[in-house]
Design goal:
With 473 residues, the chain is of the alpha+beta class. The chain contains 9 helices and 23 strands. The strands form 6 sheets. Strands 1, 2, 3, 4, 5 and 6 form a 6-stranded antiparallel β-sheet that branches. The longest helix is centred in the first third of the chain and has 20 residues.
Amino acid sequence: MANKQDILTSIKNLDLFLKVLALKGAKARINKNGNPFVYVGGFNMVFQLTHKSKKWAFRVWHVPMGENKERYLNISKYLTSKKLPYFAEFIYDEKGLLVNGELVDTIRMEWLDGMLFKEYIEKHLTNSSILVSLADNFLKMCQDLRDNQISHGDLQEGNILVTENGNIKLVDYDSICIPEIEGQKEFVTGLKGYQHPSRFKGGKTSLKADYFSELIIYLSILAIAEKQELWEKYQVKDTQYLLFSETDFEDLENSKIYKDLSGLSLKIDKLLAILIEYLKTVNYTELKPFLLYLAPPVITKFTSDKEVLMQGSEMSLAWEVENALKVSINNGINEVEHIGTEILKPQDNFEYVLTAIGFNETVVKKLEIKVFPTPIIKSIQVPIPLFEKTTNLEVNLPEFPHIELGINNLSNNLNVNFNNNINSSFEEIKFNSLDKNFSSLNAKKGGLKNVFQAINNSKIISRIFKNQPNEKN
């Protein structure tokens, strides 16, 4: 296997030893001392080449690749097919460089310009809106990677670049996992301040490898955006951490950083609760993406046992809400639990509004209640049954030859027929058509049988009989 010095010699003489046709004529970046500019890692060396004004990161292994050749080929093909904006162009070239008489495989990646993650945060430390935007972009990237079944495997500040306009780029693809290589032995397990403790117990590549580090990075960005003095307090610039270290994960709720972040905001508290749940999980492969915990709120119930009621009456308001950070109801009820009931006495028509505040979304539901004033009874009228038939009145009182039948009030037309078929006679019938009153109905002979017929929906208030004793002649 080629050693490091032999590789440096080949890079100095690319015209002779570079065998990648697509890079023919490329030049290596040279330091002031005359040697090629190079990043040296545990497995490979990375140089910067320029070809036709385009820069490339050119990687050459200084340790045997073995079976990993197929792995890198799969990653290269997969990333090329997905064309996600977070990855540089990534091409595996077989026998790309001649080193000490041996052709070795190489990888070329588009050289990405941008600020390192921490440099970008420090530059915008006093501009919380830019940092929140960075957090949102990071969250979108996490979702895009999951949608395309890609896990970077080593998300940390050194592997994230940010362009001037806030776009995120990822570097170092040795730890990437795609469906074709899931379950293979891991090359890299990441920095401890970004990884679940179980990640370091020896494992295999997993598409879930980023879940823990995604939460740590997102939480840290938002916390610094809300409280910028955390940057200096935890000396973020001069460490490999953001805000959390591996010792914090041993007893998070008693850690210094937890006490500094707890109560900072509803969002921070929610993310801390998810982190606690993560740390209670034995193995990182059992984690769920933290975005699932941030689903929009759902109002499953907001009802009243009465939608119409009399003023002063009681009603019961009931509600159930899921996924909310805060739930409140107007009209003086204010903040409430996610599930509850309230007994109310509304005095007027009112619209109750339940507001469920989620992590990134607020949901509102309204309930209209109609309230009627208590009725006051000013009068009562009892209708007399309607007469639409013939009514027979029989009077046979010889001792009272003078009988007066008085009808005092008649509200509608009244037809009265008398049938004197038993030798009765009537001397006087008085009827006033203006006020519709019968003043009197007199019969001066004993032995009376009358037929009385009332029609046309008449209401009658009557003095039926007034008996008068027999007058002496």
